[in-house]
Amino acid sequence: MALDLTHSREFSEQFINWAQGKGRVLIVTHDNPDPDSLASATALRHLLLVKNGQDAVITFGGMIGRGENRQMVRELEIKSSPIHSLDLNHFNVVCMVDTQPGTGNNSWPEDQPVHLVIDHHPARESSRSCRWVDIREDYGASATILHEYLLAQKISMSTKLATALFYAIKSETQDLGREWCRADRESYLQLIPLVNNRILFNIVQSKVPLEYFRVFNKAISNARIFEGVLVFNLFEIGHSEIVAEMADFLMRAEEIDVVLGLGIYKNSGVLSFRTQSQEINAGEVMRHVVEGFGTAGGHGMIAGGQVPDLPADPDALRDLEERLTQRLLERLQRSPNHCETLVGFQSISSYRDG
User: Fold this and answer.
1) In this predicted structure, what is the pLDDT of residue 349?
2) Do 255 and 286 belong together in one domain?
3) Is residue 345's pLDDT more than 50?
4) If 0-12 CB within 10 Å is exposed, 13-18 middle and 19+ buried, where does residue 251 land?
5) Which residue, 127, 129, 137, 159, shows the most beta carbons closer than 10 Å to its own?
6) How many domains does one find in the chain?
7) The CATH number of the domain where 155 resides is what?
8) What CA–CA distance (Å, rounded) separates 253 from 349?
9) Which residue among 204, 235, 257 closes a domain?
C-alpha cells in the first residue's frame, strides 16, 4: 500500500478541528517507549502545535532503558513527563500512539476515556469506544502514519523530527526487512534527505554499560532449544526493554525460527516473542501462550506480554518459563522431548540461580 494522503488528510483534519479549543492534550505512549512510539508522539505533538497552537504533553509509565532509545531522546530533545507526575484530570484530550486502551503495555487508567488512537497493531475491542481511531495493521510503523499526516497537512518538519521519524521506521521494520509496506518504504525514502546523519550515527552507535554484556552472557547461557524454538530466561533485569533486545539478537541463530524470552522487572514478568516464519502469527501465538497468566499483544513477527505480581524468586520465574514453554511448543506442534542448550553444558542448579 502506497502513502494514503487522502485518508490521512481527511482524518487528521477532522481530528484537528475537533480538538481545537478543547484545552490541554496528553499523548500516551506504551510504558517503555521504543523509537516508533517516541517519534509518533513527537510528530503528533508537532501537528497539534502547528495547527491548533496546543502544546501537548507526552507521557509514559515505565522507563527508557535501551541505550539507543535513551540516546535518541537526548540527541533529538524529545520532552516527556512520567505519568505518575501528572494530574490526569487536567487533560481534556487524550491520545494514544503505538498502543491501545486495555493492552496492558501502557499505564493509562482503564476507566478513563481515550479520544484518539493511532496504531499499527491489531485493533482491540477496547479501541471501539474511542472517538477517533486510525489503526492500520498492514503498516510496519506508526511513524509512517504520522508522517502521512504531516505531508497531507503540508506541515514542514525540523531535521530532528525527520530524523526521529526515519529512525523509527528504520528500527521498527529492520531497514525495510521486516513487516513493511509500500507506505513505509515511501516515507523511509522521502525522509532520508532530511536526516541528520551525525545524530543518526550517535543513536545507532550509542555506548552501553558493561552490565549490557553480562546480560548477553546470561541470555546465551540460559538459552534452550526445542526443534527450532529457542527459549531464554534473564531472571531479574534492570529494565524491561532488554528482553526484546536479546530476543532480536538470538533470532539470528541458525536453524531457529522462533524465540521466546522472559525476565522479571519490578515484580512483573516481561515476555518477548520473535519469529521469522510467515506461517506463525506472533500476536495470536503470544496471546494463547499468556492466557490466564497476564496480557499480550503483537502482530506478524513480533509480540510481547506482561505477567503481573510475580515474586522476585528465580524458582517462580523458572516455573513460569516451563509453563509458557510447554504451551508454546504445544501450540506450534514442536516436541519438548529433545532439548539442547545453545552453548555447552549447564547444570540445573546454575540455571535456577539465573
Assistant:
1) 41
2) yes
3) no
4) middle
5) 127
6) 2
7) 3.90.1640.10
8) 25
9) 204
Q: pLDDT by residue (tens digit) across 172-229?
A: 998 998 889 999 999 999 999 999 999 999 999 998 888 889 999 999 999 999 999 9
DSSP string, 240-276: THHHHHHHHHHTTSTT--EEEEEEEETTEEEEEEEE-
* 105 shares its domain with 191: yes
Higher pLDDT, residue 115 or 296 = 115
CA-only gyration radius of the chain, Å: 20
Work out the widest C-alpha separation in the chain, in whole angstroms. 65
Q: How far apart are CA 39 and CA 184, in angstroms?
A: 14
**Lookup result for grid cell 526521529:** 164
Q: Of how many residues is the chain composed?
A: 354
Residue where a domain terminates, one of 178, 204, 230? 204
Closest CA to 189 of 151, 152, 154, 155: 151
CA-to-CA dists, residue 51 to 20, 153, 167, angstroms: 9, 9, 25
Cross-sheet strand order for the sheet of 340-341: 295-298, 302-307, 268-275, 258-265, 229-236, 224-226, 340-341
212-228 per-position pLDDT tens digit: 899 999 999 999 999 99
